[in-house]
Amino acid sequence: MGDRTMGNLILYGAILVALLAFAYAAWLYLWVKRQPCENRKIIKATGLIRAGARTFLRKEYAVLARFAGVAAVLIFVFLPKPIWQGEIVHNIWMVVAYIFGTVFSAIAGKIGLEVATIANGRSAEAAKKGIAPSFMAGFRGGAVMGMAVVGASLLGVTLVYLLTKDATTILGFSFGASSLALFAKAGGGIFTKTADISADLVGKVELGIPEDDPRNPAVIADNVGDNVGDVAGMGADLFDSNVASMAAALVMGSALGGNNVDMVFTFAALGLLASIIGVMTARIGEKGSPTKALNSSTYVTTAAFAVLTAATTYLFQFPWRIWGASIIGLAVGVIIGITTDYFTDDSKKPVHYVANASKTGPAFTILSGFSYGLLSVFPAMIGIGVAAFSAYKLCEPLGGIEYALFGISMAAVGMLSIVGMIVSNDAYGPIVDNARGLAEMGDLGEEVLAITDELDSAGNTVKAVTKGFAIAAAGLTVIALLGAFMSEVNTAAAELGIAGIQSFDIMNPMVFFGLLVGAAVPAVFSAMLMLGVDRNAQRLVAEIHRQFNEIIGLKEGKEGVEPEYDKCIEIATDGALKELVPAGLMAIIATFVVGFIGGVQAIGGFLCGNIISGLLLALFMSNSGGLWDNAKKYIESGHEGGKGSDAHKAAVVGDTVGDPFKDTAGPSINTQITVVSLMASLMSTLFLTISIF
Amino acid sequence: MGDRTMGNLILYGAILVALLAFAYAAWLYLWVKRQPCENRKIIKATGLIRAGARTFLRKEYAVLARFAGVAAVLIFVFLPKPIWQGEIVHNIWMVVAYIFGTVFSAIAGKIGLEVATIANGRSAEAAKKGIAPSFMAGFRGGAVMGMAVVGASLLGVTLVYLLTKDATTILGFSFGASSLALFAKAGGGIFTKTADISADLVGKVELGIPEDDPRNPAVIADNVGDNVGDVAGMGADLFDSNVASMAAALVMGSALGGNNVDMVFTFAALGLLASIIGVMTARIGEKGSPTKALNSSTYVTTAAFAVLTAATTYLFQFPWRIWGASIIGLAVGVIIGITTDYFTDDSKKPVHYVANASKTGPAFTILSGFSYGLLSVFPAMIGIGVAAFSAYKLCEPLGGIEYALFGISMAAVGMLSIVGMIVSNDAYGPIVDNARGLAEMGDLGEEVLAITDELDSAGNTVKAVTKGFAIAAAGLTVIALLGAFMSEVNTAAAELGIAGIQSFDIMNPMVFFGLLVGAAVPAVFSAMLMLGVDRNAQRLVAEIHRQFNEIIGLKEGKEGVEPEYDKCIEIATDGALKELVPAGLMAIIATFVVGFIGGVQAIGGFLCGNIISGLLLALFMSNSGGLWDNAKKYIESGHEGGKGSDAHKAAVVGDTVGDPFKDTAGPSINTQITVVSLMASLMSTLFLTISIF
After folding, report:
1. B644 with B692: CB under 8 angstroms?
2. SS (H, E, C) B456-514
3. Bridge partner list, A505
4. More exposed terminus of chain A, fewer Cβ within 10 Å: N or C?
5. B374 and A506 in contact by Cβ < 8 A?
6. Residue A397 lies inside a defined structural domain of this protein
7. What is the pLDDT of residue B272?
């Protein structure tokens, strides 16, 4: 069998696995839909949530379509080379790939959102029959999203490669996915925290009514937020990371030749297959722990990936060192997830310390949570460093620096191999969070609430781990993209007949300048998003006040009186869309400016500074946010004075600060880094030829 | 006249200027001492403050002496080369220089502290006669510190160079100053914020008694804290930066030969001379603004430095390009100070925004202040990048990368040239802050309080600017130290007969690993310090509660009943000393571990990561802390509901969070970066010869 035939067979195989994932997703979707949902209040509420989520997504996609349109025109004119310099067909393919990337990502998000807003009510109702059926409804709903995201990313990348056989075009696909994710994550993040904070502030703090009380005009918006921020946003984020890791590996693998490209597709397809197996094995007994169930399916996926890839490495005679690199990536991803868990788990010291410090007042809640958040950065940064270094050294003997960098990119592919499982777990969280709210709105009673509370708490624990994982994966991916950038620059330089680059030297003042500016960008980016939440929440709070003042009987809960839920959704949506654009544009424009001033050397430094400070801030913000959230819940479960105590009030302040940390700014930084890295690679020819210094 | 003779003359000239600074300091000291201080309550309180400050310093120096003893032994055995490999006389000189560095820094701190605790009472009493005499007492007291710090650093560096003619030994002197500063800044910072937070928490929040009420057992500790943290600590910090910038310039200048060393000493001496002129011109009219008076003397110093250095450059035929580099440094330092001011000035948007957001509750105070703090990083990082890049490009034509890096180091020398003036302004702040407290304790009446309030507020404004300046200067200095490190490595490599290094390539996995770990260190370091403040404050709060419970009549303010002030000072001191050691050791040990694992390449990355994340965190923490402080004061001056309103309560939470940000963690990071950079240079031979990879 010829190498080319074999390569094509592997591509068809990858497409087959992607279709299998879609088929499985369809089966899961139908299973979820078959579960009973009869409570009229719940049906009504889920209807409102679904309608709200659809409204948000429609408006968001309308904004993004305009952005993508402009970007497509620019890409057509300038990428991979200015249209008057290169062949027009390349530019056309690049535009097509870019649009494919945005559309695939959007579709995956849409599917996830649709099923999540069906599964939430099912999960709530199923809790009447016990924890097992309720868990299954939530988990399988989430798994639809997991399968859709990874299936779509694998299908998209494979199709583009099959049609063009050009790795640079894959970067265009990846850039499409990333630019959509940048806005989807930021927009969803702003929406969800606007609604959450405003609902809590007026409902719980000012009026003293319970969370999820249907009198609160923002309660539906809050539930919509869980879906658009955590389900659709996180899905777009991991879609993006997954595609970017494949793109980086393909750029370097195709430059190396041999069967390296085959290996990338094989490993990516096996990762999805392993995730399918993992999802299939998820089971929970009548008295079982949902956390254990979620974790055990993750371990099954990990083991399946290791075994399957080892078998194919043996069969197809791939280099064992590269296999080793991807296993290193996978192992480090799991380890970082576990250390993240230490800082946010309510049975560990940090949560206890912050809860205790809260007795002295909110300033101490903030200071101690902030400090532990900073500490939590250490193991993850070292872990990423060790993973990159080991993968490099392991693969260097295969053929120098090119193989070494390819090894790093395969470590990223390995780390992201289980992403189908990760997304499933991640989407489970907001579904059961919603189910808890619906159980409250549908008056399903204390017993049901206790079950949904347990499922929700498992969701929070798993979420902390998957967030650490997502950031680590993005970190390793962008390190690989730095390698891809260098490879692209050298390809472009060779074509232009000018000298390529061998290094980004810190002592080169252009690199150092880039480092400093690149490091500042994530700080500014996250500040802009958080100020966006702040401004947007002020608008929404004003609207909630207006409704309580103007709608007679609402505060008292008079029969038949209802708040104008959709007004709140509208305000939160419009505000979020207004706030998301400047932050995203700032990051993009900064890249342009640095590149056109300082050329490729400055961009190398810029990417590196961006990665380092981005990882630092993303890890710190996600972990301190999770820590504050769990410290509040720990106090609510009866410690340090319990609900209503001074410690609890202080912990609520911490939780409110932590909300935009962990759900808006922290995870959006991932995407910001990826977008900037992809832009750099795509524009390498431009930066090489047009720059001031 | 031979070059050598001329060089020696310049060294003698530098010594002369240093002695002149001491003489002027002595004159200022006697002037301050001659001012009347008759109020018995004030005499008593200043006596207690002085005694408390002395106790702290004695205990702190005892701890540091033990640390320095251990360090001295290690230096003797290993530096600059292991004793069995090199010449013992070098190691002896290195130890002597190291001990000199610690002793000179300690003496400068001690002098500043003594005069500050005299000037505070004088300034309070003088306020009875009007703002002008009160200002002069505070300013001249601060200027003693300014002159002592810069005089001692210039004298020390010149003496060591005169005796050894070896720039590497200057690094030893600088390391002595830095290691002392690391602990002095961290220890003082923990002490001052422990006392401040605890006094406020029990006094203002729990009991509702005014700030500086003599019934509060921690009130003296609070005033002691201002002196040991802001006067002695900040003095040690800037002593350290000043010496480090000279050391870096000398290492590179002496490697280049020519009259470059002369230029370093000339410019440093002229900077001190310019500061003397600036201090001499400080005047304030009867209705004058203290802020203007402080700023105008800074501008006088800046102008004097520019003119004097231009004249000598012409006279001694130094290269004009190098002169240009130092002027760039100076200009950028001033510009960064001004942009920092924007984010903390109470007439600008950020303070207004945070004050307004406080109406919605403490969570919004924190979120908005945090966001603006992150935004404030941007102009400063770009400014440092531009300064380094311009200095590099300006000096490159003189002779390649070596001259270019020397140019960066001279930009740092230029930026730090006005440090005498900066320290004077900086020490003025805590003196008038103390004076305000003493005026309250001495019942000097409302009019006097109004004057001391105005002086205090000017101190806060200037402090924000000088802090931005100090961080920027440290940033540029450590960039220069990175160059010095490379130069030291190459010298060592040449002696060992092995290949030197030409670059620190980001794509080298060892460098990248170093980058990631180095970036995490400042985060962990500041987290450890803040947790230290948190734990220490809990101990002190318990003691204050004990005194209010056990001492009968204290709470009611019964005549003759006094709290046990010294008990509080003791607890804050012992706690601070216990908490400061682990954080400092962590930074030092991390450097060892990275160096011995990854060698000089990993250390290059480590330093770079450390600089970048250190600058980011230091700028962010100092600025958001200053912003919260001023937002609180802005509300207290009658905006957004004024004192006692909900907005005020929220702003107090922000201020409490900001206290350890701006006075403990933020400014300590400077010193941490310098220590690590100096260690790297000193240990370059060791890292070259002994490392795992």
Report:
1. no
2. HHHHHHHHHHHHHHHHHHHHHHHHHHHHHHHHHHHHHHHHHCCCCCCCCECCCHHHHHH
3. B505
4. N
5. no
6. yes
7. 95
Tokens 């952005």 map to which residue? Answer: A67
First to last CA, chain A: 51
Taking the Cβ of residue B387 and every Cβ of chain A, the question of whether any pair is shorter than 8 Å is answered with no
pLDDT in tens, B406-437: 999 999 999 888 888 888 888 898 899 889 88
Rg (CA), chain B: 24
- What is the C-alpha separation between B665 and B471, in angstroms, rounded? 12
Q: What is the pLDDT of residues A328-353, one digit of tens each?
A: 999 888 888 888 889 988 889 999 99
Query: Could you tell me which residues come within 8 angstroms of residue A217 by beta carbon, excluding any fewer than 6 positions away?
Result: A543, A544, A547, A548, A554, A563, A564, A565, A567, A568
Which residue in A505, A612, A616 is closest to B504 by CB distance? A505
Alpha carbon A165 to chain centroid, angstroms: 28
User: Given the structure tokens 């990423």, which residue do they identify?
Assistant: A384
Q: Which pTM was predicted?
A: 0.93
For A647, B149, B197, B621, the CA distances from B660, given in Å and listed in that order, are 21, 25, 9, 9
Q: Which tens digits make up the pLDDT trace of B567-582?
A: 999 999 999 988 888 9
Cβ contacts below 8 Å, chain A against chain B, sum to 232
CA angle B463, B467, B471 (to 5 degrees): 175
What pairs with residue B505 in β-bridges? A505
pLDDT digits (tens, 9 = 90+) for A207-223: 888 877 888 899 889 88
> Alpha helices, DSSP H only, in B165-213?
167-199
Question: What is the sign, positive or negative, of the torsion defined by CA atoms of A635, A639, A643, A646?
Answer: negative
Q: In this prediction, what percent of chain B has a pLDDT beyond 90?
A: 51
DSSP A226: I
Q: What is the mean pLDDT of residues B532-558?
A: 89
Q: How far apart are the first and last CA of chain B?
A: 51
Q: Which residue range is the domain that position B96 belongs to?
A: 3-689
- Chain B residues close to A382, C-beta within 8 Å: 516-517, 520
Domain count, chain A: 1
Q: Which residues have a Cβ under 8 Å from the Cβ of A566 and sit 6 or more positions away?
A: A48, A51, A52, A55, A220
> Are A69 and A17 contacting, i.e. CB atoms less than 8 angstroms apart?
no
Our CA-based measurement puts residue B417 at a distance from the nearest CA of chain A, in whole angstroms, of 23
pLDDT range class, residue A109, cuts 50, 70, 90 = confident
Instruction: Copy the structure tokens of residue A360.
Output: 């002295």
**Interchain pair B205, A361: CB under 8 A:** yes
* A386 with B510: Cβ contact below 8 A: no
Q: Which of residues 600-629 of A touch B (CB under 8 A)?
A: 604-605, 608-609, 612-613, 615-616, 620
Looking at residue B437, its pLDDT comes to 87
User: Does some domain include residue A605?
Assistant: yes
Task: Give yes or no for residue B471 having a pLDDT over 90.
Answer: no
Q: Note whether residue A125 is domain-resident.
A: yes
Rounded CA gap, B80 and B317, in Å? 34
Residue B352 structure tokens: 């207004």
**Which of A194, A354, A359, A367 to probe the B interface (max B CBs under 10 A)?**
A367
Contact B506 A506 (CB under 8 A): yes
What's the pLDDT at B527?
95
DSSP A423-482: HHHHHHHHHHHHHHHHHHHTT--HHHHHHHHHHHHHHHHHHHHHHHHHHHHHHHHHHHHH
Coil, strand or helix: which one is A215?
A: coil
User: In this structure, are residues A515 and A599 in contact, taking their beta carbons and an 8 Å threshold?
Assistant: no
What pLDDT does A3 receive? Answer: 63
Which helix (H) or strand (E) segment is A62 a member of? Answer: helix A40-78
Residue of A nearest to B362 (CA): A653
